[in-house]
Specification:
Shape: globular
Strand content: 25-35%
Radius of gyration: 21 Å
Strand order of the largest sheet: 1-2-12-3-13-16-14-15
Distance between the termini: 38 Å
Oligomer: single chain
Largest sheet: 8 strands, mixed
């Protein structure tokens, strides 16, 4: 990956964007798309749409959601402690002792999620069992409720303070790689395809919103774009670390290339085209069985209007929905190559009925 690509990836990864609060990351993506697209627009749901060859009748929609899981301020006690709820699939067990930022109109407010000392837990029977999110609180150092209200409002969102970290062997760790990976790939594919002089189809790259709370941005985005083909770029569960059961998840390794999903969400003809493209282009890839529909933007794109030929291509991700998600930059690069070459292999008016 180039220094320019890494700079953009770092920027979007480190920009907070919980579902419904994607404005800041949207600005970065929009600016990037404007450097290569014929047209860029933002819809009422906050989806950022970069368009190449808008006059073409045959349309392919690329979807990668730019939102992440997060926290939301729910209540403030008279003593100045802030109780919160989850935005999306947050694991409460990972939260005690974490540093956070509350993103308010006054700016980013630092805080910590309180954690009772182990010394105290030993003697209190009630502390045993599963951590519930309503039992946790954020401490910003406030003296009282009024002190909190000077800088924080009910409904403000918050994120864990966990930025971009370089690991060995071209791996990185960060919060929210699910799915800034997808938003990154969609944006980079638009840049790659913008250099193709003979692009015969319309390409709509969409950084979708609110995926983590119900695939909401992709639902309206796909209806508006009305694509013939939909390609979702996501992350999938890697199974190459302790405690993962390959018989349940599949044998998916970080660094061995993007995964291509097969299942109800996938059009079989389109899936074969992606596989053929990966093989002929010598792009390392893995196959992933997805027996149940739903869970990614693929599901709602497939059911848009009269139906869309869809496929899911994913970047293997360790420790998903944690502050330390891990991916390979090589996988990210190969995912972009595979998506771009798949788009170029599509033909106008191609038939996807087998």
């Amino acid at each position: 990956m180039t220094k320019d690509q890494i700079k953009f990836l770092k920027a979007i990864v480190q920009t907070p964007s919980p579902s419904g609060y994607e404005k800041s990351v949207r600005k970065l993506i929009k600016a990037r798309m404007k450097t290569c697209c014929d047209k860029v627009q933002v819809d009422v749901m906050g989806n950022t749409i970069g368009i190449l060859n808008p006059k073409a009748d045959f349309r392919v929609m690329l979807a990668g959601h730019c939102d992440e899981i997060g926290l939301m301020v729910q209540n403030v006690t008279e003593e100045g402690y802030i109780y919160f709820n989850a935005i999306g699939g947050v694991d409460p067990a990972l939260l005690p002792g974490m540093r956070v930022f509350i993103h308010s109109a006054k700016g980013d407010v630092p805080g910590v999620i309180g954690s009772k000392a182990i010394h105290m837990q030993r003697y209190e029977k009630g502390d045993k069992g599963t951590t519930q999110i309503h039992q946790l609180w954020i401490d910003i150092g406030a003296k009282s409720k009024k002190d909190v209200q000077k800088v924080v409002e009910i409904g403000d969102c918050a994120t864990i303070d966990a930025g971009y970290l370089e690991l060995k062997n071209n791996l990185i760790a960060a919060r929210g790689l699910d799915d800034r990976c997808g938003a990154f790939v969609v944006t980079e594919v638009l840049r790659m395809l913008s250099k193709e002089k003979k692009l015969k189809i319309g390409v709509y790259g969409v950084a979708t919103t609110q995926e983590e709370v119900g695939l909401r941005g992709a639902t309206t985005g796909a209806y508006n774009v009305n694509p013939d083909v939909g390609i979702t770029v996501e992350v999938c569960h890697a199974s190459d670390f302790p405690t993962m059961n390959k018989n349940i998840v599949g044998d998916i390794k970080v660094g061995k290339g993007p995964s291509i999903s097969r299942g109800p969400d996938t059009n079989p003809i389109l899936c074969k085209l992606v596989q053929k493209t990966a093989k002929t282009s010598r792009i390392p890839h893995q196959m992933l069985a997805s027996s149940r529909p739903g869970g990614t933007d693929t599901a709602v794109m497939q059911l848009t209007r009269g139906g869309v030929a869809t496929v899911l291509i994913s970047v293997p991700n360790r420790y998903m929905h944690s502050p330390v998600e891990v991916i390979s930059l090589r996988d990210l690069e190969n995912t972009a190559k595979l998506v771009a070459k798949t788009v170029l292999a599509l033909k106008p008016n191609q038939n996807f009925v087998d």
